[in-house]
Specification:
The protein has 216 residues and is mainly α. Helices cover 73% and strands 0% of the residues.
Amino acid sequence: MNTLDRLLLACGLLIPLWLLLGVGLTAEAYPGYSHLQQAMSQLGAVGAPTHDWSAKVNNFPLAVLFALFAWGLARRWRQSKLARLTALLVLLHGIGSLGTGWFACDQGCAPAVPSFSQQMHNLSGLLMFLSLTLASLLWIGLGRRLARSAGLAWWSLLCTLLAVASVLLMARASESGELFGLYQRLNYGVAVLWVASLAWCSLRPTRRNPLRMAIA
């Protein structure tokens, strides 16, 4: 593995740190913002005090990191069609991150009649959820066959289950108005920690079995 590959894969390790720092700093500039109750998208919503720069700190840099990491995955596991599919899914997630930043949600992010920007924001968010959830699902099998890591396989299973469970809790919270922010952070936090785990395992040297790589 050359230096370029390592740098590209290291972007996956940087993603959760960037998210934590970016959201934390942005929230500090939003008076009265609640991490437990409010969605992260409200930091960039129309009318929010951090509207003008939230996406520049969070969504756009994260989109670049996801794209670079996807490139690294495609190079690292080029022999596996399913792993290359994973790289595509990670890239789609980055595009979704770009979309959620470019199309700001309406004030409060839950309007009775959503604007075009809100609708595109919601579609981008759906793309983000589906792409990484499917990617983690694929690595339940690839973790053992490709990375030779039972730990990654079990972690991928756990993250997939948590992603589905937390999005159901988010749906319930959006109706009750309680703890939506908490469940959203659980959902996305698990997703980016899974990305970091995949990056870590991809950076490790692995003995390759050509037959298994062809089947994967």
